[in-house]
């Protein structure tokens, strides 16, 4: 079965040279109907993206520290990177996350995925801005 991703952001990120080929398919397939309700597969995809973004964290923080802090907060507190649902995990346990329904957790995984896409696009724009600034200087004769 083949499908066409309708999200321009997903297409752009999946084709980004920073995304390894084995992960680019995951970026495309994340919103595909076959993943609906599959929290583990969504979690796996987000974790792969989080790993890539970890290496870019200083750059992303420079671009938008508030956004970066929010994204990494979600990685660390939505039972993605850490077990936030086991009360015996002192310091990691989050009551609100443990009480979430699977549907609510899936919603937040989907939001986190969208933020991952945005993070890659923002990093791409940061690189593009250097070229835009050069063009502006050339146009303005500075």
Percent range for β-strand residues: under 5%
User: How widely separated are the two ends?
Assistant: 54 Å
Query: What structural class should be given to the helix and strand makeup?
Result: mainly alpha
Unreliable spans are: none
Order of helices and strands: HHHHHHH
Please describe what this structure looks like:
The chain is mostly helical. The chain has seven helices and no strands. The chain is elongated. The chain starts with 7 loop residues before the first helix and ends with a helix. The model has no long low-confidence stretch (mean pLDDT 87).
Sum this structure up briefly:
The protein has 142 residues and is mostly helical.
Secondary-structure topology with pairs:
Blueprint: H1 8-14, H2 21-29, H3 39-55, H4 57-63, H5 65-77, H6 95-98, H7 102-140
